[in-house]
């Protein structure tokens, strides 16, 4: 078979398209391991001896009052903020405190910020296409011959995020909720092992919240998902295990029922909602 035939043969799966055996080793432990992590800003301990482990494929919700340290914790995981002390490991092989932000992203940690940042003038499809092109693990020079495989992957993601019917519409016309799903789809294009999602349902309608709950729960198992959210109804609808942060440490951990009945949690946080 000539090289041209090989490259255009749709039945052939090229080596660079098959998922590489994950470099993240979770055979003997969690996908994310944080121990004794602390960071101070001008003498104020935003994170204070934080211990947290996330299992491979787990969906974890993180709650906590304003200023509890949720954002700072995600900044530490993604390499944006360096802690003063502690350890942060991705699987058993990767010491995240020795890596920079782009390398951590490339390793498979995706972060969804609260505000959607899709490219409004581009179509839904083009946004997903662009996200794939941003994957540094794919050699840019090979992109031209991967069009068919790109399309399959994009179609798969479009179905997951429920935007098939809008694939050729500019992202600017999407509702707030649809933009959030598109952005989650853009992260999924890069096949992250761990997805950090910050307040996904802020500003969403009830219906959009239900759809987001379905989307996030459908991701669990395939990747690990950490959701930081203030909306207790939403957390209850998706949560298996909930971690309550307070003053930079874990105050309680367990099912939503366990943490919402915990007297310490009621006192510092849920009490406000009860
Ligand atoms: N770069 C910084 N410089 C100084 N203080 C900071 C900085 N980043 C965070 N803080 C402080 O650290 C504490 C924890 O903030 P963080 O944003 O992590 O909390 P949060 O749980 O995400 O709160 P929210 O729910 O309001 O988003 C807050 O008191 C905040 O003011």
From TrEMBL:
Keyword terms of this UniProt record: ATP-binding, Nucleotide-binding, Transport
TM stretches of this protein: none
SMART domains on file: AAA (SM00382)
InterPro entries: AAA+_ATPase, ABC_AA/LPS_Transport, ABC_transporter-like_ATP-bd, ABC_transptr_urea_ATP-bd_UrtD, BCA_ABC_TP_C, P-loop_NTPase
ABC transporter domain ranges (all copies): 32-272
MF annotations from Gene Ontology: ATP binding; ATP hydrolysis activity
Domain of life: Bacteria
Cellular compartments per GO CC: plasma membrane
Xref: NCBIfam families: urea_trans_UrtD (TIGR03411)
Protein name: ABC transporter ATP-binding protein
């Amino acid at each position: 078979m000539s090289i041209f035939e090989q490259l255009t043969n749709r039945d052939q799966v090229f080596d660079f398209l098959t998922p590489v055996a994950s470099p993240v080793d979770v055979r003997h432990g969690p996908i994310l391991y944080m121990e004794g992590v602390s960071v101070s800003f001008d003498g104020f301990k935003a994170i204070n001896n934080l211990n947290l482990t996330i299992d491979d494929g787990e969906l974890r919700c993180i709650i906590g009052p304003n200023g509890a340290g949720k954002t700072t914790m995600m900044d530490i995981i993604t390499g944006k903020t360096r802690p003063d002390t502690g350890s942060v490991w991705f699987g058993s092989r990767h010491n995240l405190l020795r890596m920079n932000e782009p390398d951590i992203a490339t390793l498979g940690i995706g972060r969804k910020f609260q505000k959607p940042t899709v490219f409004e003038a581009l179509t839904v499809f083009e946004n997903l296409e662009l996200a794939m092109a941003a994957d540094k693990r794919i050699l840019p020079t090979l992109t031209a011959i991967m069009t068919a495989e790109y399309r399959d992957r994009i179609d798969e993601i479009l179905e997951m995020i429920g935007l098939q019917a809008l694939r050729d519409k500019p992202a600017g016309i999407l509702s707030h909720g649809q933009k959030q799903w598109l952005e989650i789809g853009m992260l999924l294009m890069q096949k992250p092992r761990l997805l950090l999602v910050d307040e996904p349902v802020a500003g969403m309608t009830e219906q959009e919240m239900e759809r987001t709950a379905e989307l996030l729960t459908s991701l669990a198992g395939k990747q690990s998902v950490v959701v930081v959210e203030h909306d207790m109804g939403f957390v209850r609808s998706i949560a298996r295990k909930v971690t309550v942060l307070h003053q930079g440490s874990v105050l309680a951990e367990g099912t939503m029922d366990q943490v919402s009945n915990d007297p310490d949690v009621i006192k510092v946080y849920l009490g406000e909602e009860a």
